[in-house]
Amino acid sequence: MSTATTATAGTAEPDPGRPRASFADVLRSEWTKIITVPSTFWTLLAGSLVVIGFSVLWAFAFTSTYDQLSPDARADVAPTSPMQIAFYFGMVIFGVLGVLVVTAEYTTGMMRTSLTAVPRRPVYLAAKALVLGGVVLVVGEAVSFLSFFLSQAVLATKDISGSLGDPGVLRAVAGGGVYLALIALMALGIGVIVRHTAGAVVVVFIVLFVLGIVGGFLPGQWGETVAKYLPSNAGSAILVPVEQSGVLPPWQGLAVFALYTAVVCAAALAVFQSRDA
Amino acid sequence: MIQARGLTKRYGHRTAVDHADFTVRPGHVTGFLGPNGAGKSTTMRMILGLDRPTSGDVTVGGRRYPELGAPLREVGALLDAKAVHPGRSARNHLRCLAQSNGIPERRVDEVLALVGLESVAGKPSRGFSLGMGQRLGIAAALLGDPPVLMFDEPVNGLDPEGILWIRNLMRNLAAEGRTVFVSSHLMSEMALTADHLVVIGRGRILADTGMRDFIDANATSHVLVRTPQAGHLGPLLAARDWRVEVEADQALRVYGASADQIGDVAADHGFRLHELSPVQPSLEEAFMQLTGDTVEYHAGGPARPAAGSGDGPPAAGGGLPQAPPPPPPTIGDDLHGGGHRA
User: Fold this and answer.
1) DSSP B87-112
2) Are A21 and B62 an interchain contact pair (Cβ–Cβ within 8 Å)?
3) Which residues pair with B29 in a beta bridge?
4) Average pLDDT for residues B162-167, to the nearest whole number?
5) Strand partners, A130
6) CB contact under 8 A, A37 and B87
7) Compositional bias (Low complexity) spans (chain A) (predicted)?
8) How far apart are CA B134 and CA B303, in angstroms?
9) Per the CB < 8 Å rule, is B85 touching A108?
10) Could you tell me if residue A34 is inside a domain?
11) Distance CA B115, CA B94 (A)
12) Does the residue A3 lie in any domain?
């Protein structure tokens, strides 16, 4: 023992006698965690139903009122309009999943068990974020494309549907899944910081839903600029196929939202590292 | 082996663990004893890297916990039986843990069988009783077949059969040469299971010693004497520098003398003895003697100053005989004060 300690001090030299868990092991564990609780399934199902369902409903709303609309208003209806509105209502649910994967561990005490298994906290958090981001990206893309295609089927009855080949549409639809994945990651960060499910969900709701509405009431040029950069306004810019006034350019908007996500996650990692579990 | 050196944890002004030094060795069941709020759980959390020490450090097998490459293969811990996602099944809970440390998944079914949970392995743990939760926690601790095991209050919620099972389990684990560190407030249970003790009170390590040595050092054995002539025999024994206490029913507790010596004195003076029995102190008595003054929250009345208050390590370690504890009224005192107490 005393002869062995010389090698172990400071240098993290892999010792053949001591097995070492790899990042892939931790990833596999987080994957098992997320697919073995029913809440994951139900949350994803709820989010998917709301986004897809609202896309179809709004498509019906547009087609049924289209004949009464003024030419100006008709010009504002894009093939992606129904899903843009649907995302606004449904995205918070994907945020709830991001919150739950971590607050469920805090409220049940599972966090202590998890951190005794994986004591290097950045590794633990990175694996969790990767798995969550991956799951929501895949489901989010499916939801986004389904929302688009189903709403086009309805819009086609008034000849106002579009296709993925139209300018900016593929980017908007594919970007929608990425946006949902980023929302889940931001919510994960908020969950780590707040630790309580209800509190974290309220914060996510305020950041994604309330702030966007408040932004609409800000006065003047200054208010419009601020509103553009509010999280949900910046993020949902990716859903707009052709650049509009009052909205950031699509990629720039998504980049701003990704930056917010990165800041929240960095803050979460910092408090997670320093805090007692 | 677990080794703490100057381990300290402060929360604001409150010191939960105060310069703790102790060693938990392989091949023994080491009991971690202390009143509620003494710092047991905080210490265990620091060993597992969950709480960061304010100063000092603690190592497991020579390394700090976060440096362990596959910690579940080196340390198995049961901290909180219900630290499980209620919607996840027992088997999936263990699978998550096994995967995170590269432990083969067949081991999951092995430990489930070991703790007797196979029949409910597929059920969500929300329906588990406290005892089943405890068994699941123990299964998790055994998952990586680790050389070091820590159990925080493991018998909580177990039925008598379960208590016997875990007692044998811990003894067997120690007999296999593993390090077993178990906290409990159940003194009688600890006396049956542990052969080494680390005693903590108000965050300070009061003893780190063998079970027998601890009892011998902290509680004095005595001889119980019953005689119809207690009022005469008592002073006679006290005159020989033996400490004599009078029980409410006039029985005498004599410290510092053997039953033979007392019997001889009684015979020499022609006293009739109705009982003469040596009494071995229990772990509980020794514990109460040592920590009686360090219990954070006394039942009524303000806390008295800490035992061995002031500096220097408490004298209990190493099994050195201690000065007898401050006595209840003795015959000697009574003689000076005049008259007997009833």
Assistant:
1) TSBHHHHHHHHHHHTT--THHHHHHH
2) no
3) B180
4) 90
5) none
6) yes
7) 1-12
8) 34
9) yes
10) yes
11) 13
12) no
Residue in the structure block whose two tokens are 């080794």: B3
Structure-token pair, residue A93: 């649910």
Q: Tokens representing A84?
A: 């843009």
Query: Does the residue A235 lie in any domain?
Result: yes
Contact A21 B75 (CB under 8 A): no
pLDDT recorded at residue A88: 92
Integer Cα distance of A23 and A61 in angstroms: 49
Residue A2 domain flag: no
- Alpha-carbon torsion, ordered B111, B114, B115, B118, to 10 deg: 80
Q: State the CB neighbour count (10 A cutoff) for residue B287.
A: 26
Say what the pLDDT of residue B189 is.
Answer: 84
For chain B, what percent of residues have pLDDT higher than 70? 85
Q: Is A195 helix (H, G, I), strand (E, B) or coil?
A: coil
Nearest by CB to B71, from A36, A119, A277: name it. A119
User: What mean pLDDT is predicted for residues A165-171?
Assistant: 92
Q: Which two tokens stand for residue A140?
A: 């989010």
Query: C-alpha angle A204/A209/A212, rounded to 5°?
Result: 125
**Which range marks the domain in which residue A106 is found?**
21-274
| Inter-residue contact B19 to B8 (CB < 8 Å) | yes
What is the pLDDT at residue B300? Answer: 44
Nearest residue to B152 (alpha-carbon basis) of B126, B177, B186: B186
Task: Report, as an integer, the average pLDDT of B13-20.
Answer: 92
Best of A116, A124, A197, A275 to substitute, by most chain B Cβ atoms within 10 angstroms, is A116
Contact A113 B83 (CB under 8 A): yes
One-letter identity of residue B61: G
Q: How far is residue B216 CA from its own chain's centroid?
A: 15
For residue B162 the two structure tokens come to 């379960």
B-interface mutation test, from A13, A113, A271, most B Cβ less than 10 A away = A113
The rounded Cα B295 to chain-centroid distance in angstroms is 14
- DSSP H or E stretch at residue A126: helix A121-155
pLDDT tens digits, one per residue of A181-197: 999 999 999 999 999 99
What is the maximal distance between C-alpha atoms in chain A? Answer: 87
Give A166: exposed, middle or buried? Use CB within 10 Å, 0-12, 13-18, 19+.
middle
With CA atoms as reference, report the closest residue to B269 among B315, B237, B310, B303. Answer: B237
The C-alpha atoms of residue B78 and residue A116 are separated, in whole angstroms, by 10
| Dist. CA A231–CA B261, nearest whole Å | 88
pLDDT band at residue A2, thresholds of 50, 70 and 90? very low
Contact list, B45 vs chain A (CB under 8 Å): 112, 276-277
Structural domains counted in chain A? 1
Contact (CB, 8 A) for B209 and B318: yes
ipTM, 2 dp: 0.87
B200, B206 Cβ separation under 8 angstroms: yes
Q: How many CB atoms lie within 10 A of CB B334?
A: 17
CA pair distance B171, B196, nearest whole angstrom: 12
pTM above 0.90, yes or no: no
- Residue numbers in B near A277 (CB within 8 A): 45, 50-51
- For the sheet with B29-33, list strands across it: B75-78, B148-152, B179-184, B29-33, B196-201, B204-210
The CA-based diameter of chain B, rounded to the nearest angstrom, is: 77
A37, pLDDT greater than 90:
yes
Q: What whole-number distance in Å separates Cα of residue A26 and Cα of residue A126?
A: 9
Cα–Cα–Cα angle for B93, B95, B97, rounded to 5 degrees: 75
